[in-house]
Amino acid sequence: MVFSWLNLGIVLALFAGLAFAAGPLFGSILLAPKWRGGDHAMPYECGMTPHGGSWMRFSVNYWIYALIFLAFDVDVLYLFPVAAHYADSEGWLPLVKVTIFIVVLALGIVYFWRKGVFAWPRRISD
Question: How is the chain split into domains, by residue range?
Fold first, then answer.
C-alpha cells in the first residue's frame, strides 16, 4: 500500500476528532471544582428544594405506557420510507400494504385501550 497525502489527511482528521472528543472530558476532570457537600449533592428540581428521596418510584403503568409509545413511534417511522417510495409505485398493491399496516397499528391501539393501559390511575392522596 502506498501512503499518500490523502491517507495522511484522513489520519490527521481522525486524531483531531479524537482530540476534540477527549479534550473536554480531560479538561473537566482537571479544571472542575473538587468540593462536594452542601447543596451540590442535592438533585436539582427547577430551583425548588426537593422533598422525599432522590429516587422516585414510578408505577408500572408509566413504564408500559412508555414502551407502547416507543413501539408505535418506531412503527410509524416505517411509514416515512413508504411515503417516499409511494410516488414511484404503480397499482393498488402499495396502497393495500400501507392500509394493512395502519389497520394493524390501529388494532394494537384499540387492544391496549380496551385493556385499560391508556387510563392513567388516579392517585389517592392522604
Answer: 60-115
